Amino acid sequence: MSMQDLMQRNIAWADAQKKIDPEFFHRLSMQQNPDYLWIGCSDSRVPANQVVGLDPGELFVHRNIANVVLHTDFNCLSVVQFAVDVLKVRHIIVCGHYGCGGIKAALDDKEFGLVDNWLRHIKDIYVHNKKEIDSLRYHQQRVNRMCELNVIEQVNNLTKTKIVQHAWKRGQELSIHGVIYSIADGLLKELQLDTRSTKAIDPVFKMKVKIKV
Ligand code: CO
Fold this sequence. Notes:
Elements lengths: L2 H18 L3 H7 L5 E6 L6 H4 L7 E6 L9 H13 L4 E7 L3 H7 L7 H14 L1 H5 L4 H21 L2 H8 L5 E8 L4 E4 L23
Parallel strand pairs: 1-2, 1-3, 3-4
Antiparallel strand pairs: 4-5
This protein binds cobalt (II) ion.
């Protein structure tokens, strides 16, 4: 499909959208008011809005390879900060997916280029959980368990940020969820680690924040 085809598809999409809801674009042009921030993988098979059935305007989205949240990544942190402090989203959803290429690559020793540096962080998760991962019989099981552990790690990374800790200290309603998507059947699974307060954070990462009112 050429770029021109995509432009044609865009016109068709905008027309169809206007037919369903004539005020749709006008309404969205006034403001966005999403309740959710989605942090997912860049993988083309995991389109954020579609898998949870949300329209434009309902989901604030950040995607990168292997849905990683790093405390040195200003891109991701800026998205989180804006979503929490300005848009006041009520939920942050970290969504991994089974069979993630980024996770597979991190478990391999092949070189892919710059992205290897990004995936180094996932190797660290493997090192910390080596016993459990190595005890699994099949490579696919090891990859998939690593995909789950990666989501858990990224949820924990979010709770360690000042952005999230400040929000909880000032009493803002904010919960963080870890979910994993199966490309094979289109279904999401919750990883039962909903976090809504600083209680679960390792004291090492808890900040004694003073809130200026
Ligand atoms: Co992926």
